[in-house]
Amino acid sequence: MKRKANAIWNGGGADGSGFLSVQSGAFSKMPYSFKTRFENNNGELGTNPEELIVSALAGCFNMKLAFVLNEADFKPKELNTNALLIFNDGSVTSIELSVKGKVPSLNEEKFIELAEYAKNNCPISGVLSCNILLNASLI
Q: All domains of the chain, ordered by start, with CATH?
């Protein structure tokens, strides 16, 4: 599988702006800028690279966990993952995943074990070098 994205940037770092597009068409010409990355206090529509990374990780983790649960003969009704990316001094230093799952017949200890396995083995986790913390619980 190959996936493509396109980024266009015009201008300098702080005063420039650009657009992001993805092959699937899920978004095309999504604006991004210094303001949407670091300030975004004026309601300006746009995204930023960190938001895209953390959403990719949350989505990938949920899919991997669903497959892991299926392989262990559990059928999840819902997996709800929140992801928080920590950006300090120009670097992504950590990401915190918090997953809550509705999985019939599964105890909390086994859920945490399978969630940890999914976190360590989802494809997006594999490309990130920062520490990824996990909190998992059944609801």
A: 5-39 (no CATH), 49-138 (3.30.300.20)
